[in-house]
Amino acid sequence: ATPMSIMTATGRGAQSGVLIKNAEALERFETINTLIVDKTGTLTEGKPRLVAVMPEEGSTEKDLLRIAATLERGSEHPLAEAIVSGAQDRGLQLSDTEEFEAVTGKGVKGRVDGQRVALGNAALMRDLGIDLAGLADVADARRDEGETVMFVAIERALVGMVSVADPVKETTHGALVALHELGFRIIMATGDNERTARAIARRLGIDEVRADVLPEDKARIIRELQDQGSKVAMAGDGVNDAPALAQADVGIAMGTGADVAIESAGITLVSGNLDGIVRARKLTLTTMRNIR
Ligand code: ADP
Ligand code: MG
Description:
Elements: H1 3-15, E1 18-20, H2 23-29, E2 34-38, H3 39-43, E3 49-55, H4 61-72, H5 78-89, E4 97-103, E5 107-112, E6 115-120, H6 122-127, H7 136-143, E7 148-154, E8 157-165, H8 172-181, E9 185-189, H9 194-204, E10 208-210, H10 215-227, E11 232-236, H11 242-247, E12 250-254, H12 259-264, E13 267-269, H13 275-291
Parallel strand pairs: 2-9, 2-11, 9-10, 11-12, 12-13
Antiparallel strand pairs: 1-13, 3-8, 4-5, 5-6, 6-7, 7-8
The protein binds adenosine-5'-diphosphate and magnesium ion (MG).
Residues 38, 40-42, 236-238 line the site of magnesium ion (MG).
């Protein structure tokens, strides 16, 4: 590739909010046939809001939400922000957490009002030896609507569930339709529950889902696809996505996401909208064609 045409292409990209780091990223993007997308903050707005508080017998909505929000004050996860905002909107008085601990890809733990509290997904409850069988139907019905359900336990006894919903970005569906037309195979990779992930994937026409993935798994999934001969781009926004963005043939970061994600990526979409990938693809195709 001649430096001049590459410069023209990166300049045109930048004007439309698609920042291409270097010639290598531009050239490589032409060969990509598989796109892995993170869910939260990439397909969705990444601003979940609390939609349900479901106490078990013996607890109340107020108590459940107060304890959940108190614990989540220590977390920077978007799910935590949804729970804390939900409690604040309802005017609840939060207390303090001691011995706070974030369990990556699973949830949070700590001591609230002297009691050991845990909040997170089914895997976290499994680690604590808590049986979720009685709640499975209610949880699944919520997940089928694309919601993320979290469980709350006090002293290893289940006290209820909270559920949040994270709207899909307005531009996501159209972008995925266009990317399919351009020949991409599209795979969602998420730490969220399989059922929630599938509900959202179905709406968006996504080809495959890898759910319940721990952060370190995303890079491994990409490596496996590469070993099978796929040329892989990864789109993500989180701190957790950085290793996967680096492993991909081309990493695509959301400009609205974490700085380390942007640093690990070859392409940054300033607005955080996936239609930037469509633009990037068209740009590489024309540029590489003109060069040859
Ligand atoms: P994602 O790919 O959706 O960003 P994460 O690895 O951050 O995934 O989280 C995976 C799952 O772990 C979440 O869907 C949630 O069930 C649980 N989880 C993670 N952090 C928290 C938290 N602070 N509070 C409650 N649940 C959490
Ligand atoms: Mg994310």
